[in-house]
Design goal:
This protein has helices at 22-38, 64-82, 156-163, 225-242, 245-250, 254-263, 270-273, and strands at 97-100, 104-111, 114-117, 123-127, 130-140, 143-144, 150-154, 171-175, 187-195, 201-210, 215-224. The protein has 275 residues and is of the alpha+beta class. The N and C termini lie far apart (116 Å). Residues 1-44 and 58-83 have low confidence and may be disordered.
């Protein structure tokens, strides 16, 4: 490789450019150029522009896009892994209310109605909803034996009876889970709701006789007036939903009401008044 000796000479200073030293500068340059010409053995093209320093190329890479890409991939993987298998179905919610006393605990949970599809594409209620009462006896201080729990399902009519109870009123419900079957009469459930002697609430007393298991269980729990008022408020709210009327109300469309009523007089009020 050809090396230019005059490039290694120190840079020209103001002293070098003194007018009195022009002769020295010319002789030095002539000697360097003659030395360069004598040592040249190959033909080459000399480009003065190549001697000028060029700024080194550099690249600036922004890592913000990578951060958001990784964050997006992380969010997508998290949402995919955390999504339930039935992601296309509406979410389901389980609610309940519990009352704990020294002798027993009572849990109240609503159960939704059931619908069956029709050939027309509509749905018809096949079973009304109910409220499930679960009684568990105490097994210690603030401890309850839920393995010995007894259940009682309140129908819509029985819920209405509880709502209408006064401070001194009482009621009694009888259930046979095997009614109409071969085991009818072998399991007997009786729920009694009676007022407390001082009028401060009601006793909920559930008696279960199961001849199949040779078991006779009796669980009772006192319910204060405030607790009973809370239960009645929840019963009043949930009652139309147990009947399935919310599904009917949500399906009403103003532009289709008149057409449905005239097409099926059974569901239309106009049919009665136009007779």
């Amino acid at each position: 490789m050809l090396q230019l000796h005059f490039l290694s000479s120190p840079p020209l200073s103001a002293q070098t450019l003194n007018p009195n030293s022009n002769t020295k500068l010319f002789l030095s340059f002539s000697h360097s150029f003659s030395s360069l010409k004598s040592t040249q053995t190959h033909v080459f093209k000399f480009n003065p522009l190549s001697l000028t320093p060029k700024p080194s190329k550099f690249s600036l890479k922004c890592r913000q896009s990578e951060y958001f890409d990784q964050k997006q991939r992380f969010n997508n993987s998290s949402s995919t892994s955390s999504s339930p298998p039935s992601a296309g179905l509406p979410p389901r919610y389980y609610v309940g209310h519990s009352i704990y006393k020294g002798k027993a605990a009572l849990t109240v949970e609503p159960r939704a109605p059931e619908f069956v599809p029709l050939d027309s594409g509509a749905f018809k209620i096949s079973r009304e909803g109910f409220v499930l009462l679960q009684f568990a006896p105490a097994a210690g201080v603030r401890q309850y034996d839920w393995s010995r729990k007894q259940v009682f399902s309140l129908s819509v009519t029985e819920i209405g009876t509880l709502i209408s109870l006064g401070a001194r009123d009482s009621c009694e419900f009888f259930h046979d889970p095997f009614k109409g079957k071969s085991e009818e009469g072998k399991v007997r459930k009786v729920l009694k709701v009676e007022p407390l002697p001082d009028g401060s609430g009601h006793f909920f007393n559930l008696g279960v006789q199961n001849k199949l298991l040779n078991m006779d269980e009796n669980i009772y729990i006192p319910i204060t007036r405030a607790e009973f008022a809370g239960l009645n408020s929840a019963f009043n709210f949930i009652l139309p939903y147990l009947l399935g009327w919310h599904a009917f109300a949500n399906s009403i469309k103003p532009d289709e009401t008149s057409r449905v009523n005239t097409a099926n007089p059974r569901y239309g009020g106009d049919y009665e008044w136009n007779r």
